[in-house]
Specification:
Low-confidence stretches of chain A: none
Oligomer: heterodimer
CATH topology of the largest domain in chain B: Nucleotidyltransferase, domain 5
CATH architecture of the largest domain in chain B: 2-Layer Sandwich
Number of helices of chain B: 14
Shape of chain B: elongated
Number of domains of chain B: 4
Distance between the termini of chain A: 101 Å
Strand order of the largest sheet of chain A: 1-4-5
Shape of chain A: elongated
Radius of gyration of chain A: 32 Å
Structural class of chain A: alpha+beta
CATH class of one domain in chain A: Mainly Beta
CATH class of the largest domain in chain B: Alpha Beta
Mean pLDDT of chain A: 90
Order of helices and strands of chain A: HHEEEEEE
Largest sheet of chain A: 3 strands, antiparallel
Strand content of chain B: 25-35%
Distance between the termini of chain B: 50 Å
Largest sheet of chain B: 6 strands, mixed
Number of strands of chain B: 26
Mean pLDDT of chain B: 87
Radius of gyration of chain B: 36 Å
Largest interface: A-B, 30 and 24 residues
Helix content of chain B: 25-40%
CATH topology of one domain in chain A: Nucleotide Exchange Factor Grpe, Chain A, domain 2
Number of strands of chain A: 6
Structural class of chain B: alpha+beta
CATH superfamily of the largest domain in chain B: ATPase, nucleotide binding domain
CATH architecture of one domain in chain A: Roll
Chain lengths: 158, 630
């Protein structure tokens, strides 16, 4: 009798252990899988983080280049041959080269307004120009590897 | 299981989040931004635009660009709020057949909830793209003062967008959830929400798993944009004073002023002064004009003080209405980008006498809270497996009584780590591993957990044997430390139970002590480091003299010996500077002697080849130091 009882008891214990084993193994596997996925995710996030850091830096560069270009377009015709002016214009060129060297491209502004890459900052009524045509670029837009970093600020025909 | 999207549908900006890997995270939109302007538009080419794209064409298409639609959600056209807003909104609204509001977009009239649905649909699509799975359920937040009709409209907007809205929850409640305050008991929480266009104040009461809104207040037309406007007006005034030109009439200049004003405002949250530098802002009769002005934090505070005062007055009124004193409030939560301004944080702190909670990004905290609510509904946010951490660092004592940490504090356990150490003396045949716990750099300041000796290391010069010391701590905090000689495979270990079982007071004491002694300990550790370097050098000097001493001129040899003696004298009882100085002097002498020897050797080789000295291999255990050296 006691032998039977003991067998019963052991059976019950074994069943319980089996169940627990299954549960723990499943938990462990899940944990390992989670970790593998997490590692992959972290790697992706790191790459994205680096990308984002670069983009943020470019973002702070754009207003500086905007201003250099504003200066460039304000140089009176007569002084363009002046050595100092020429030097400054060369710096502007250098800034633009810096961006293109890092894969930053200017956003296309020929033709019609496209809110996906342009931001409207004003409108103008103009004879003979189709409404929606970009008539002035107030600040250039930039993209890098297909991602828009800043829309071009444009004035369009009404 | 599909994720439940948490959405903060704001007046000017919206954000979304979901629980990923047990944690609420913001989901970026398709354009890669963490927030999306709450704007929808019917473009001139007939396309419906949502978010940043709609905003970008607002200037050219104001009548068909619908922003701030939240102000109209679930309202009746006759409501005084609607009548007031009607004058401010650039698009056309009318009374619908049911007495509600209708908005004109192109030829069609839409209900406000339909406009909101445009934004929500974009969120659903962008989230599906980002997460790579179908999203069908959402939690949407609304201001605590929203009535039943406004909540119903919000819910309906979600359903139109193809989302089953599991719950519509209060924004302040979501913010409290993001901070985990739902676990507090019988506490009062104030949520101070200063957004772009609205200011809301809510008083919450947490009791046994429920968060109840006790009172609300605010101003639906007070926000961060008012601050920007103030700075812009000031800039225009300054420029007018200096140059006599009104920039307010030049749209391109205004655009740059707006950006400059916002940038200055953000910078003044961390800096005390900033420069607004806008060259070529316009041109006058005599050529281009530039704007350069300095703005201090104090000046800015002066400009916007009325807004801050107004918000604090509203806070006091709301407290009064709820019959609660500021001192009865246990937690204050800051929401909305404008709360980054130090003057606002100071004002809040002064009233409540406590630091407000602002560790979570105030632009994202509501969406994160909504995602957490989704997680709770789904059972995602559940502490299934509680993992412990080691409260204090674990390490061993190394040469000179330095504590070398292997497992740093707050390491999640189970964990293991091993490091290879070597002997400190020639022909040292045993190492003692002294296991300790604590943050102090010197072993003497830490708690000893146990020690053991690994014997039978074959005799070898110092630094050659490789003894691998492994720490392994299991989920129950039982620590196994093993030292293994890599050459012979001999190993010895110790099992320490309850290495995490230090009482909370003890942990606190050890941490405070470590902080208190930081400076002194650092100095001590630096001294030991310098002394170890000196010992290393002395060892080299002795070895060189013994092996090649006769090659040196008597004079040089004497000089080196004297310098070595001088170093030995300062090593005990001298200052760190003295030890460093004497070490440096000896090191220079030794290189000089070495160079002389080399030269001599070359000369000798030239005259008589092959007179190299056989190495003296005599073993000598000259030091009683038997700690491993790192």
């Amino acid at each position: 009798m006691t032998g039977e009882k003991k067998t019963e008891e052991l059976k019950r214990l074994l069943e319980k252990s089996e169940k627990e084993k299954e549960e723990y193994l499943a938990g462990w596997q899940r944990e390992r899988a989670d970790f593998a996925n997490y590692k992959r995710e972290v790697k992706g996030q790191m790459e994205k983080g680096i990308q984002r850091a670069a983009e943020e830096l470019f973002h702070d560069w754009f207003p500086i280049i905007d201003n250099m270009e504003r200066a460039e377009s304000s140089v009176p015709e007569g002084t363009k041959k002046d050595a100092v002016v020429k030097g400054f214009l060369q710096i502007t060129k250098q800034l633009r080269e810096f961006l293109s060297r890092h894969g930053v491209k200017e956003v296309e502004t020929d033709g019609f307004f496209d809110p996906a890459i342009h931001e409207a900052v004003g409108e103008e009524e103009l004879e003979g120009i189709e409404p929606g045509t970009i008539v002035k670029v107030a600040a250039k837009g930039y993209e890098r590897e297909g991602k828009l970093l800043r829309p071009a600020k444009v004035k369009i025909a009404k | 299981m599909a994720k439940i999207l948490g959405i903060d549908l704001g007046t000017t900006f919206s954000a979304m989040a979901a629980v990923q890997g047990g944690e609420a995270k913001i989901i970026e939109n398709k354009e890669g931004a963490r927030t999306t302007p709450s704007v929808a538009a019917l473009a001139k080419n007939g396309e419906t635009l949502v978010g940043v794209q709609a905003k970008r064409q607002q200037v050219t298409n104001p009548q068909n660009t619908i922003s701030q639609v939240k102000r109209l959600m679930g309202r009746r056209f006759a409501d005084p709020e609607v009548q007031k807003d009607k004058k401010l909104l650039p698009y056309e609204i009318r009374e619908g057949e049911d007495g509600g509001v209708e908005i004109r977009m192109g030829e069609k009239w839409h209900k406000p909830l339909e406009i909101s649905a445009f934004i929500l649909r974009k969120f659903k699509q962008d989230a599906e793209e980002k997460l790579g799975e179908k999203i069908t359920e959402a939690i949407i937040t609304v201001p605590a003062y929203f009535d039943d009709s406004q909540r119903k409209a919000t819910k309906a907007a979600g359903e139109i967008a193809g989302l089953e809205v599991k719950r519509v929850i209060n924004e302040p409640t979501a913010a409290a959830l993001a901070y985990g305050f739902d676990k507090k008991k019988d506490e009062r929480i104030v949520v101070y929400d200063f957004g772009g266009g609205t200011f809301d104040i809510s008083i919450l009461e947490v009791s046994a798993d429920t968060i109840e809104v006790k009172a609300t207040g605010g101003d639906s037309h007070l926000g961060g944009e008012d601050f920007d406007q103030k700075i812009m007006e000031w800039l225009i005034g300054e420029f007018q004073k200096g140059e006599g030109i009104d920039l307010g009439k030049d749209p391109l200049a205004l655009q740059r002023l707006k950006e400059g004003a916002e940038k200055a405002k953000i910078e003044l949250s961390s800096a005390m002064e900033t420069e607004i530098n806008l060259p070529f802002i316009t041109s006058g009769a005599e050529g281009p004009k530039h704007l350069v002005v300095r703005l201090t934090r104090a000046q800015l505070v002066n400009m916007v003080q009325e807004y801050i005062d107004r918000s604090m007055e509203l806070v006091r009124n709301t407290l009064k209405e709820a019959g609660i004193a500021a001192s009865d409030v246990q937690e204050v939560v800051l929401v909305g980008g404008q709360t980054r301004m130090p003057a606002i944080q100071d004002a809040v702190k002064e009233l409540f006498g406590r630091d407000p909670n602002r560790s979570i990004n105030p632009d994202e905290v509501v969406a994160l809270g909504a995602a957490i609510q989704g997680g709770i509904l789904q059972g995602d946010v559940r502490d299934v497996l509680l993992l412990d951490v080691t409260p204090l660092s674990l390490g061993i004592e190394t040469l000179g009584g330095v504590s070398t940490q292997l497992l740093l504090k707050n390491t999640t356990i189970p964990a293991s780590k091993s490091q290879v150490f070597s002997t400190a003396a020639d022909n040292q045949t045993s190492v003692e591993v002294h296991v300790m716990q604590g943050e102090r750099p010197m072993a003497a300041g830490n708690k000893s957990l146990g020690r053991f000796v690994l014997e039978g290391i074959p005799p070898a010069p110092r630094g050659i044997p490789q003894v691998e010391v492994s720490f392994d701590i299991d989920a129950n905090g039982i620590l196994n430390v093993t030292a293994k000689d890599k050459a012979t495979g001999k190993s010895q270990s110790i099992r320490i139970e309850g290495s995490t079982g230090v009482s909370a007071e003890e942990i606190e004491r050890m941490k405070t002590e470590a902080e208190a002694h930081e400076e002194e300990d650092k100095k001590k550790a630096q001294f030991v480091e310098a002394r170890n370097a000196a010992e290393m050098l002395l060892y080299t000097v002795e070895k060189t003299l013994k092996e090649n001493g006769e090659k040196l001129a008597e004079e040089t040899r004497k000089e080196v010996e004297e310098s070595a003696e001088a170093l030995k004298r300062v090593m005990d009882g001298g200052t760190i500077e003295e030890v460093k100085e004497k070490t440096e002097a000896l090191s220079q002498l030794l290189s000089k002697a070495g160079a002389a020897m080399y030269q001599q050797g070359q000369q000798e080789q030239g005259s008589s080849s092959g007179s190299s000295q056989s190495k003296d291999e005599e073993g000598e255990n000259k030091k009683d130091e038997d700690k491993p050296s790192a």
